[in-house]
Specification:
66 residues; alpha+beta; three-stranded antiparallel sheet; 3 strands; 33% helix; globular
């Protein structure tokens, strides 16, 4: 089996998410590619599941903090 295409797609997705998180951590406004609403970052002290997501939930990136 050839997994090169799957590996390439996974790598691209990882880098897109990494860049999105970098922008959010810098305080930049990032809009969801699906619904165009602002993506907010939620930290552990916010008393909700940590991550980055839009209001509709189209974009939902879970984060683990150590």
């Amino acid at each position: 089996m050839d997994f090169s295409n799957l590996n390439k797609q996974s790598s691209q997705s990882f880098h897109k998410q990494k860049n999105l998180l970098k922008k959010l951590m810098k305080g930049q406004l990032v809009k969801c590619p699906n619904c165009q609403q602002a993506i907010k970052i939620y930290l552990p002290e916010d008393k909700v599941k940590p991550g980055a997501r839009c209001a509709k939930g189209c974009t939902d990136i879970s984060l683990e903090f150590v």
